[in-house]
Amino acid sequence: MANFNRFISIVLRLEGGYQNLTADTGNYNSLGQNVGTNKGISAKVYETWLGYPPSVSDMKAITDQIAISIYKANYWDKIKGDQINNEEVATIIADHAVNAGVYSAGKITQQTLNERFNLRLSVDGIIGNQTVSAINSVNQYKLFDGILSNRERFYKNLNQPKFLQGWLNRLKPFYEDLINLSSKYGKKASYGLFFLGIVGFSLYMINKQKNDRKSNKQQSNNS
After folding, report:
1. Closest listed residue to residue 148, CA positions, set 128, 165, 129, 172
2. Which CATH number does the domain housing residue 89 bear?
3. What is the rounded CA–CA span in Å between residue 27 and residue 14?
4. In sequence order, what are the residues at sequence separation of 6 or more whose Cβ sits closer than 8 angstroms to the Cβ of residue 161?
5. In this structure, what are the phi and psi dihedrals at residue 34, rounded to the nearest 5 degrees?
6. What's the rounded Cα separation, in Å, for the pair 92 and 95?
């Protein structure tokens, strides 16, 4: 069975800390106030959790433990993560639920299952027992490959160039999972995406190393 701890370690790393960009609609509470997002928890998500519109100080006070509780209840449990056998598949579905909503994650998963495996699931965005059973019954590499490809297409179709590169950057760590899954389940998905996955992950690691060196250099200059 998939492990929630693996998912949460990845999503907290991807989300980062507090930000209050004015162009990010997720930063506004129901009063129209820009109070920001923290650890990937948007203002309205936290408002639902608290039961009242959060302030800037409320958002900044979100701890890792609070974020973990929200991610478990609002996303992991909603996609039935504990019932999905493969950790990589459960993680990429749950991550899309965080980034684009549970409905969108369910819809992309169902569309992928229908497209790649000729199933006839209802594309209602709800990951119920039938969808979970389908997820667990198919080739996991081919499914993961399809979800990754469909997530990229989803972001591009939103036609929001200001945020597109950030969304695509979010997918880069998942190329490593794609490569790992290929050795377990065989290369039955699109070879083009597999090749792009290798290139994308390589570029991601190169950029990460450059950023790490830059960060270390800055720390040395400041000390």
Report:
1. 172
2. 1.20.141
3. 17
4. none
5. -80, 100
6. 5
Q: State phi, psi for 189 to the nearest 5 degrees.
A: -100, -170
Concatenated DSSP letters of 207-222: HHHHHHHHHHHHHHHH
Backbone angles phi, psi at 142, to 5 degrees: -65, -40
Residue closest to 140 by CA, chosen among 172, 122, 114, 113: 113
Task: Answer yes or no: do 113 and 149 share one domain.
Answer: yes
pLDDT on residue 213: 55
Range of the domain at 4: 1-77
Structure tokens at 191: 């070879």
| SS3 assignment, position 58 | helix
Q: Could you say which of 46, 77, 108 is where a domain stops?
A: 77
Q: What is the pLDDT of residues 124-160, one digit of tens each?
A: 999 999 999 999 999 999 999 999 999 999 999 999 8
Tell me the pLDDT band of 91, cut-offs 50, 70 and 90: very high
Contact 23, 4 (CB under 8 A): no
CB distance 135 to 109 below 8 Å: yes
Give the containing element (helix H, strand E) for 193.
helix 191-222
DSSP state of 125: S
Find out whether 127 and 72 touch, Cβ atoms under 8 Å: no
Return the structure tokens found at 216.
């270390």
Give strand ranges (E) for the chain: none
Which of 77, 101, 105 shows the shortest CA–CA distance to 8? 77
Whether the CB-CB separation of 169 and 134 falls below 8 Å is answered with: no
The amino acid that residue 133 corresponds to is: S
